[in-house]
Design a protein that fits this description.
Elements: H1 10-14, H2 19-26, H3 30-40, H4 52-63, H5 68-75, H6 79-89, H7 112-116, H8 121-128, H9 132-142, H10 167-172, H11 190-198, E1 204-207, E2 219-222, E3 225-227, H12 229-238
Antiparallel strand pairs: 1-2, 2-3
Helix pairs in contact: 5-6, 8-9, 11-12
Amino acid sequence: MRPAPVPSDFHKNALVETNEQLCARYNRGDNLIRRWRQESGARYRQHNHWTPERMDEVRGLIAKGMTAREVSEATGLTRKAVIEAAKRYGLGPWLVKPGSKPGDTRHIPDDYAERWAVLSNKQLAAHYRKSGATVGVWNKLLGLVRPTGKHVNPKPAKTAPPKTITSATVKRWPAHHKPAPMVSNRDVTQAGLAADFLRRFGPVVRCRADGRYDERGTHWRRGSTVLTADEVIERAQRNGWRPWGIAA
């Protein structure tokens, strides 16, 4: 299928309309509109905020000695846009303000040292609407140094009430935070009780017949010796243990 040709009035409309508006006008998809733009050489609509009136307004504010930040706040433009427009359209020159030379402290507010004693650098930057770098320069010019390892206006520590541990809380704990098994999980068979008795004299663990550790194994390992259930009971009796129903 041959691609649709570029309409005769497309170039004129493409200079003042967006792709979405062109799609609605010609009832075509976005990909086709983009191809028509490329074939016809129609550039996208340019959004130029710098009208002659706007440039005269910014030029007048700069002439009054305002900074780029102050101009952006007065006009609603971004600081970067103000700086770039001043260079592109020649809206300057920017006036040299006090403090632009090293050692000049005339631009620092009169109450800065007083507020420095009770506010942090971050709070000072928010109060004077300056950057953290500017606050650091002011501190350096005035010789203001904070004590090392101490905080200005330390916040009081929050004391949380003690938490009550319930069964629901324990269920939500991760596996590695859960408490050890309760006594109800203890091996209460005669062989298990005999192994508990032998642990008074040394380690005794469950294992397999080949001596490898296994908490569900059928044998016990005492030192380097692998014992069956009957052998564990016999060893315990020789050491003074008495099973159920047998008097000492």
